[in-house]
From TrEMBL:
It catalyses: K(+)(in) = K(+)(out). Keywords: Endoplasmic reticulum, Ion channel, Ion transport, Membrane, Potassium, Potassium channel, Potassium transport, Transmembrane, Transmembrane helix, Transport. InterPro entries: TRIC_channel (IPR007866). The lineage of its organism: Eukaryota, Metazoa, Chordata, Craniata, Vertebrata. PANTHER family: TRIMERIC INTRACELLULAR CATION CHANNEL, TRIMERIC INTRACELLULAR CATION CHANNEL TYPE B. Homotrimer; conformation seems to be controled by binding to diacylglycerol (DAG). Residues 202-235 are annotated as: Disordered. The chain crosses the membrane at residues 12-33, 39-56, 153-171. Its main location: endoplasmic reticulum. This is Trimeric intracellular cation channel type B. It is found in: Endoplasmic reticulum membrane.
Length: 235
């Protein structure tokens, strides 16, 4: 609904965009007992974000958006974004030692007049949140000297991983997280999460005649087994 809001209320659209761009700063400030509007003091960042917001929504003929929809340019910008993610994580770890944009997205949705609690990042974490959380843990361990690796080496390796993963996902048009196999294995090992939900009674998908898909597949396998045994007897 962002496009409709940009036409109906540009102020709400701008405020929504700023919340999404600086949501991590707002959330970390609240958790560290700091002013949640401290990000407004960085005039250069606000001006840059506001300029991009205006060009995305109000550039004539959508020229700005069409230029960045060009795949090579999109890959370049995506790689640059992942590099800045590393900077933000390292700066955040150092700042927290002295004293998450997706988690504030529900409030940003309220600004646009939309309420989707099922999209809460705590219920279903997206790839950026997962990779940022992993990075925060790694850099925290390194900062506390529990991880025996130099900071610049960790920054380099983590940044390369981010860029390669993001570019690969864009080129393959895959929305699946590269952590999915590890999550499934660890979830099954430590929390008993079932890899095949159909095994749970009453949760299998049902067909048009009301029978479970799992039950139907089992009956089909049984029927095939009977046919094979009959064929052996005939032989």
């Amino acid at each position: 609904g962002a496009v409709e809001v940009s036409v109906r209320s540009p102020v709400a659209c701008w405020f929504s965009a700023m919340l999404y761009c600086f949501g991590g700063s707002v959330l970390s400030s609240l958790m560290l007992a700091e002013p949640p509007v401290a990000f407004l003091a960085k005039g250069t960042n606000i001006l840059l974000a506001s300029s991009v917001w205006y060009l995305v929504f109000y550039c004539p003929q959508d020229i700005f958006y069409r230029c960045f929809a060009f795949l090579p340019l999109r890959l370049l910008v995506a790689g640059m974004k992942e590099v800045t993610r590393t900077w933000k994580i390292t700066a955040g770890v150092a700042h927290a030692d002295r004293a998450g944009g997706g988690l504030i997205s529900n409030f940003e949705q309220l600004v646009r007049g939309v309420w989707k609690p099922e999209t809460n990042e705590l219920l279903k974490m997206s790839y950026p949140v997962k990779v940022t959380l992993i990075g925060a843990v790694l850099f925290s361990l390194q900062h506390s000297q529990y991880l025996p690796i130099a900071r610049h080496n960790l920054v380099f390796l983590y940044t390369i991983f981010l860029v390669v993963s993001k570019v690969t996902m864009m080129l393959t048009r895959s929305a699946a997280s590269p952590f999915a196999p590890f999550e499934a294995a660890l979830g099954h090992m430590f929390f008993g999460l079932q890899k095949t939900p159909c095994k749970v009674k009453g949760e299998g998908a049902t067909s048009s005649n009301g029978s479970s898909v799992c039950d139907r597949s089992s009956s089909e396998q049984h029927h095939d087994g009977v046919k094979k045994r009959q064929a052996k007897k005939t032989d």
